[in-house]
Amino acid sequence: MSNLKTDIINYLESQKVYGNNIFFEGDGIEFKIDKDLVLKNMAKKQSPNKNIKESSKESTISSKIKHEIKEENGNSNSFIADENSVNKNWRDAKSLEVLYNDIHNCMRCELGATRNKFVFGKGDPNADLLIIGEAPGRDEDQQGEPFVGRSGKLLTSILESIQLSRDDVFIANILKCRPPNNRRPSTSEVDTCEVYLHKQIEILNPKYILALGLTAADTLLKEKCIMKDIRGEIMDYRGKKLMITYHPSALLRNPNLKRPVWEDMKKLKGLLTE
Question: In this structure, which topology does domain 90-272 adopt according to CATH?
Fold first, then answer.
């Protein structure tokens, strides 16, 4: 049995979850826990003098699970995902400020262990336009704000071309933490973090959403897209009107894409002023 599996079993046993109820799948660290057996064993092991509250700690079983992660220097490290790192009532938040306070210490996925700053998003909480990127990069991770590097400066210029400033819109990412080495987010990371974006959309209630880049489009729409087929089109995303255009970083690599982005932004400006 690998050292990681041994560590997992030792940890779960310390929480009164026993190794014979843990089923590993393959050679990775994915595993399942038979909750019925766990609860029965917990009842058997519980001392009769224990407080009733202490006998119902089943949330602890799922709140912390040890994972192995690789840092940017290539070294492996252990990380314990903690569901209790966010306010359990965060879904009831009525404002962006409350939501931020509820979730900014999130450690529910391994990115929490490698981030420098949690990048919640920034802008007008009453904005008609929400701009969504994929994930923070190095500059964003250092400053705690979305789109502040070279791509961010170009995004500012793009907005100014249709008489908008960053203060007129709200800018966020699908992920709130930077993936190491700016790699693409994993499915599990997106699944863990995208719910925060959904809550932001609910609170903001924007008229339009602008997604930047094909990766963001694929993630939001849950399908593989071709940019030329979807660019500039108005689509539905969770009941909101969504437009997709090229990411500013693509324009930095290929200036020929500035024209189609300009066309998309003119169309969006017209829609916003209707």
Answer: Uracil-DNA Glycosylase, subunit E (3.40.470)
What's the chain look like in SS3? CCHHHHHHHHHHHHCCCCHHHEEECCCCCCEEECHHHHHHHHHHHCCCCCCHHHHHCHHHHHHEEEEEEECCCCCEEEEEEEHHHCCCCHHHCCCHHHHHHHHCCCECCCHHHHCCCCCCCEECCCCCEEEEECCCCHHHHHHCCCCCCHHHHHHHHHHHCCCCCHHHCEEEECCCCCCHHHCCCCHHHHHHHHHHHHHHHHHHCCCEEEEECHHHHHHHHCCCCCHHHHECCEEEECCEEEEEECCHHHHHHCHHHHHHHHHHHHHHHHHHCC
172: left (phi over 0), alpha (psi -120 to 50) or beta: beta
* 93-128 confidence digits (pLDDT tens): 999 999 999 999 999 999 999 999 999 999 999 999
Q: How far apart are CA 128 and CA 166, in angstroms?
A: 12
The answer for residues whose C-beta is within 8 angstroms of residue 238's C-beta and 6 or more apart is 198, 201
> What are 175-232's pLDDT values in tens digits?
999 999 989 899 999 999 999 999 999 999 999 999 999 999 999 999 999 998 999 9
Closest C-alpha among 78, 82, 99 to residue 201: 99
Q: What is the pTM of this model?
A: 0.73
Q: Sketch the domain layout of the chain as residue ranges.
A: 3-85, 90-272
